[in-house]
């Protein structure tokens, strides 16, 4: 495994005249403990020289940062590599990777020694690069599509912060039952645990917390509706719970629409738009529809 991670980036124009501390913390979203390590060990340089972090930086100054494993609580997560033969990569650079997760694969193992999850396959793929996958977010086992992982511990905090602030935008596609649903709308219903089933969540359940879901209808066919969905919050099973609660459960949902005859959950992480760490560039990554989605639409068309 790598023994250090070095990053070089210019100061963006919008941070001209701001302190180095503000650049690192407010703009590049590094947590205070990492900034403390960089400052204490003089591992942050401006144009090749150390400056105190309260000094101003200027447009196109070159910032160099070097991080060590000791800067992180868990610099090398224990992930058992599994076969990467069926792994589909949607985007990759030095810092992060977006995978097209297969329906039926877990995002990560639930038990010690367990393999077969997406992160296990990714660990095998990254092994020749002498790096590991770092978890940023999760998808339910029956959900397919784009999922983001970091390739080093440095970019984990900025990615997680951008995800929490919704600067990383994720759009899902889902088929729901019924066509009476409005063409667009917002569902604002708190979600908590289901006291009758530990696997499930429910509206106004135990320890409910606010949850907000935005949607827009794309197509209505033969009694079902294809939606594009964006989450303003990230609660467990949020999409599935919200649409079941308004009387339009997801087609094929084994927990919230168990009488449905469609064998697979029709929920797909379709598109991710994300700002790249230490960069002013944003990328859009789209995951192609899986066969169970296209087959279902074909069946509706007859």
Automatic annotation (TrEMBL):
Q: Which SUPFAM superfamilies match?
A: Pseudouridine synthase (SSF55120)
One GO MF term: isomerase activity
The record lists the catalysed reaction(s) as: a uridine in RNA = a pseudouridine in RNA
Keywords of the record = Isomerase
Residues annotated as domain Pseudouridine synthase RsuA/RluA-like = 95-245
Would I find Secreted among this entry's keywords? no
Q: Which CDD domains match?
A: PseudoU_synth_RluA_like
PANTHER family noted in UniProt: MITOCHONDRIAL RNA PSEUDOURIDINE SYNTHASE, RNA PSEUDOURIDYLATE SYNTHASE DOMAIN-CONTAINING PROTEIN 1
> Per the similarity annotation, which family is this?
Belongs to the pseudouridine synthase RluA family.
Protein name, as recorded: RNA pseudouridylate synthase
What is the native source organism of this protein? Answer: Lentilactobacillus raoultii
């Amino acid at each position: 495994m790598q023994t250090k991670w070095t990053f070089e980036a210019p100061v963006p124009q919008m941070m001209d005249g701001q302190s180095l501390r503000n650049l690192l913390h407010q703009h590049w979203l590094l947590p205070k403990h990492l900034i403390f390590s960089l400052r204490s060990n003089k591992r942050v340089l401006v144009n090749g020289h150390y400056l105190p972090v309260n000094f101003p930086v200027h447009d196109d100054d070159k910032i160099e940062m070097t991080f060590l494993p000791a800067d992180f609580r868990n610099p090398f997560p224990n992930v058992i590599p599994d076969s990467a033969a069926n792994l589909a990569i949607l985007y990759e650079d030095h810092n992060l990777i977006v995978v097209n997760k297969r329906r039926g694969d877990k995002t990560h193992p639930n038990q010690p020694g367990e393999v077969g999850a997406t992160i296990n396959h990714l660990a095998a793929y990254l092994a020749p690069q002498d790096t590991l996958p770092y978890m940023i977010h999760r998808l339910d086992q029956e959900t397919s599509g784009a999922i983001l992982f970091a390739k080093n511990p440095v970019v984990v905090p900025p990615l997680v912060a951008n995800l929490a602030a919704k600067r990383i935008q994720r759009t899902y596609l889902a088929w729901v039952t019924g066509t009476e649903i409005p063409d667009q709308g917002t569902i604002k219903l708190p979600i908590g645990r289901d006291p009758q089933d530990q696997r499930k969540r429910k509206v106004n359940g135990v320890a409910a917390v606010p949850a907000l879901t935005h949607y827009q209808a794309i197509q209505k066919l033969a009694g079902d509706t294809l939606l594009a969905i964006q989450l303003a919050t990230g609660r467990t099973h949020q999409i599935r719970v919200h649409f079941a609660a308004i009387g339009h459960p997801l087609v094929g949902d084994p927990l919230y629409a168990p009488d449905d005859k469609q064998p697979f959950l029709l929920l797909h992480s379709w598109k991710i738009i994300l700002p790249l760490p230490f960069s002013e560039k944003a990328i859009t990554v789209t995951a192609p529809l899986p066969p169970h989605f296209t087959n279902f639409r074909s069946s509706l068309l007859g």
